[in-house]
Amino acid sequence: MARPTPSSYKDFTSYRSKLNPSLSGLNQYLNRETVAVSAVTVLEFGEHGATSQHKMAEGADLSHLTAASSSVSTRIILIEDISPRLISSVGAAFDIDPSFFAGYISTYFEAIETKPPTPSLATLPSVTAERGYLHLHYHRVMDLGSAESFTTDTPYALNSDGNVARNVRRLPPLSGRQLALARACLFLVDAPINVVLETGKLNNRYDVKPLHGGYEDFNPSPTFSSFSLGIEKDLDCNRSMAGGILRHFMIPPVFSPVSPQILSISYYALRVSLSEWLLYTLLISRYCKHYEYSLNDISTRLHDNDIIDLQRWRRRTKQSLQKLAILAHFVEYWGQGLDKQAGDMMLNDIQYIQKQLDDYSRSLEQMLAVATSMVQLLDSRRSILEAVSVRRLTYIALVFVPLSWVSSLFSMSDTYLPGHGRFWYQSRILRNFSLSSLWNHRIAHQTRQITTSPKPSDPVTSISEIRQRCGLMFNRDDIQRAVAWVGVFGSFSRYKQTPLSDVDLLVGFKKEASKDDIYFLGDLTGELEGVLERDVDVLYMQYQQPLDFIRCQALVTGKTVYGSYEWLQNHQPLAERLLFDTQSRFVEALRLMKKIVESLAPLSEKELFSSSSFFADLIGNLEKLLHLLYSEDQDAEGINSHFDVLYEWTKPLPSIIQRYQTRGLRSFERENRECLWHLLTTDLPDRALSLQKIYLPILQEVFDTKKLELDYSTMEES
């Protein structure tokens, strides 16, 4: 690579972007026109802590700032909404690495196949910490006003105005308010966001302001006496991030002006970003509650947009956790430059926010799975209703078939067309054929009613009565072509039915039943409810369909009301084996979980990671627990999904176990230890309680109904 002739800072950035593709965004930015004037403020600290503050014009000479002064120990230059021209002049004057500016300018990364990643994504946390600077990326919660001002055509993606345009993402309305999330960054300072624009449409502008005025101030509150004497100045600085930072620096600094450290200089910026992160976690909490209520009524409130929003929130929380992990690593790396107590407290605050985001991330994962299942149920219900509507089209055909036949009889010559003299011939004959078709349909319908059970006046009260009432109905040709076996399960099979109990039926289709046979059979629920005079839930099952828990339960406990026992014999053994295996694994898993909880009870987090022998036994028990909670049997894939809440918390465990087995206990960093401690002391006891109180009793109820005993020798032989 030929080295270019020394020229401008822009040329240097272009040269570096060939070595570091993440600088391409900065390279493009330096070729843009300046949109707004940057604000430059210089803070000067003397040896005794005295400060002075003055502003500089964007095009002013910066050379005097690099000169030594006997009265100035430290200078801090605060730049708001830095322009391309100012980046070139500041970078050249102070010999700044272009990666510093690129980390501030490039924050949006959409697809790796179209553009290189941003510096924050392309750089490992250890390299970032060693460089000695870190841009604090976070979200600002913004208020766009009344939600009525926005329509469905208003785009989701908006942008701020200014030199560095930040992404602003519109959120679903809450309580009539339209909120948004704006990307923000420190240590270079973003301009206040007062207006947002639609991408490519500068005329479509929306006023915006920070929600509730902005972040919560973290400095000691002023006293009433100082306020009454007029000593305190106006504190309304939250709309301008630069104003807030300047106000914090005018307080006696937390660093030594003679020998300032990196983390002590960035102390106020860190506190500001963490305050914004805290407000962001409260917003996620509010949206979690919003979606919980949305999922309560899928017919009126759950939409496809809810699935998209949940996916977006899940992605945001993962990215947020990544940013906070990098921040925690940076603070821990440079913590020696700050008072130990202040550094530890800041790390505790970061971990507090990480813990909240991690909890909300898990909630969003669960809600997304539930919402996806509900949408699938709605689609399934819609398909069934469409199949039922096919029957109604038959009635329309009864009218139009005679019309088509009569039209062909008269060959539709001009004389017999509507509006001509002999059209009444066609109408007269059509009337007779239509009446004849409708009369024949009525006779066929009455014949079907005669061959089936008369509609009873009282709800069924027993399995034998269900069998009796449904017998004639299931002897119909369309049902016999497709259905091999029908069984009742649930409260009736347990003989615990009440006047309010519904009837649960499993309908098993024949092996040779075609898709057309099943499709035209339609949904039997409405007809069965009319015959049985109870609410009916019908579960359908194709021949050798993969079994989930409900179908296993129906096959094991179901009582035959129609069909051949041979079909049941082909499916019941597998269902019994899966249920037996699940119960035996869960019983052993509960015993092991209680053992782990009891062994951890007297220990602290520090003591756990200090005992290598105890930790080795713990890892062995966790490996056993993973195999007990989740079956690798291919036939158990469906039944595993029913109990996913019992093992979804174990997702981080395989990587933790592998880390220990390959690199040892000393390789565990702070985040690894905190994650494992949380899993063992919070998630594991909670799942053990759910297993004992909910899931094992459900399984036991199936076996009590069937009155089967677990025979391990038989299972091994099979």
Give an account of the 3D structure.
The chain is an alpha+beta fold and 718 residues long. It folds into five domains: 9-119, no CATH class; 134-219 and 236-251, no CATH class; 267-410; 463-563, Beta Polymerase, domain 2 (2-Layer Sandwich), CATH 3.30.460; 574-717. Helix content is 54%, strand content 12%. It has 26 helices and 14 strands. It has helices spanning 9-19, 24-30, 84-94, 98-105, 119-122, 125-131, 224-228, 241-250, 262-265, 267-294, 304-333, 340-410, 423-451, 463-474, 477-482, 515-521, 525-532, 549-557, 565-600, 605-608, 612-629, 637-642, 644-647, 653-663, 670-706, 712-717; strands at 39-45, 51-56, 74-80, 136-146, 157-160, 167-170, 177-186, 195-198, 201-207, 209-210, 483-489, 503-509, 536-541, 559-563. A seven-stranded antiparallel sheet has the order 9-8-5-6-7-4-10, with helices on one face. It has a four-stranded mixed sheet with strand order 13-12-11-14, sandwiched between helices. β5 and β6 form a beta hairpin. α19 (565-600) packs antiparallel against α21, α19 packs across α25 (670-706) and α21 packs antiparallel against α24 (653-663). The relative contact order is 0.05.
